[in-house]
Specification:
Elements lengths: L8 E6 L11 E6 L2 H10 L8 E9 L2 E9 L36
Antiparallel strand pairs: 1-2, 1-4, 3-4
Length: 107
């Protein structure tokens, strides 16, 4: 069964051919979905396009690696869209229990 990459994911592997300090420590591939690229390109009018990347240290086939996930960057909503949360009501104090039997009280 051949490996099929998942959209917006990738893996970085240790660079076994590193011969100098200028060579990368890890190498790999990142597979981006065309729709994500289209969305990022239309939203961003700058020359550079920002992509959020997250990574997890894993062991695959006995080798240490870093798996990656790419997504659209989080945009903080404008301040006007924040709604202050109403304060939570204070907890009501529990009434003290009497040390006598009150089962004969009708209410």
């Amino acid at each position: 069964m051949a490996y099929e990459p998942k959209p917006n994911s990738g893996t970085l592997w240790p660079n076994d051919r590193k011969n100098s300090q200028n060579h990368p420590d890890v190498r790999g591939d990142l597979f981006l979905d065309r729709e994500l690229l289209r969305t990022l390109a239309t939203k961003n009018k700058d020359q550079l396009i920002k992509v959020s990347v997250a990574g997890w240290n894993k062991v695959i086939a006995g080798k240490d690696c870093i798996t990656l996930s790419a997504s659209e960057p989080y945009d903080k909503p404008p301040q006007s869209q924040y709604r202050p949360q109403p304060p939570k009501p204070a907890a009501k104090p529990q009434p003290e229990r009497a040390d006598y039997d009150d089962s004969d009280i009708p209410f």
